[in-house]
Write a structure and sequence with these properties.
alpha/beta, Arginase, Chain A, binds zinc ion, 367 residues, 11 helices, globular
Length: 367
Amino acid sequence: MATGFLWDERYMWHDSRTWTDFAAPDLLLEPEPSLESVATKRRFKNLVDVSGIAPRLTWLDARPATVAEIERLHTPGYVARIRELSTGAGGEAGDGTPFGRGSYEIALLAAGGCIVAVDAVLDGNVRTAYALVRPPGHHAEADRGRGYCIFGNTAIAALHARHARGLERVAIVDWDVHHGNGSESAFETDATVLTISLHQENHYPVGRGLVSDNGVGQGVGANVNVPLPAGAGGNAYALAFDEVVIPALERFRPDLILVASGLDANAMDPGARMNLTPACYARLTAMLVDAAERLCDGRLVLCHEGGYSSLYVPYCGLAILEQLTGFSSGIPYATIMDGDPASIAVHEHERAAVTAAAVNVARVPSR
Ligand SMILES: [Zn+2]
């Protein structure tokens, strides 16, 4: 069955400013583009275009999310502030989230793109979908942006699935190397949305994503964190999937699996220190496809989040799409550093981290 792919040229027009926005007016260092720049996503899309996979995809058209859809997650005051800044010269959405004129509309288009991908899967037009959206969303909280994120795209897509489409249970698997604090905060009291975040421990945001952060009130058990030590490779991630992610999904039995698909756990990313390769992403994708087939009629939607190596992220993204479609591009990933990192052994401290997180599987609400 078909795989949807969503892209919109206007995602590239979001102005994430330069790093010196943080240093001004001290003038300490020459400006350079933000890590969250156009190149990584555009080159991913370029590779889709030329790799032979493009005709195998069902191309989906983005639409802007409505204000009502955005305000399922965000406060009206925050949404109004972003709109006002965006119609002027731009501004700062929160901690490390500068943006230029017009980014309000582009952020609506990113959240709306994830909603379109969910609808395409739920309507049966495609079986799985990848929404290559920008700006990313998983750090955004109800009343503020954070970490390049303006609106919480993946969380908003989950809320759409729950409240507009009537699904009883939705799971979010966040494999971005940073903690999915926005989704955790959005659903920490909600037992109908299971949030699972795998991330480099105590990286960003500092102090978030602890194993002990396991949901609040009615939501106890429905938030699972898997903080992994820096350096973890594909085998450590696969162990975390085997012992935490997949068993948690099996207990929860979602009607839809969403993936907050940051690709910044790759071995060449400038924003973190993990060791995933395209082959690793393919392996993890295959595990999620299998889980979705067994648990929710194959319904699987990936919403793009972070990922800052313009050289390497495109190959990781293509490897995911190859797994979703069953198409092989024949691109020799192994020549682009896919040998040693993929075979990195699971070290004892990584195994201990997975074992610690696995304790929470038994607390996931079951049905
Ligand atoms: Zn990230």
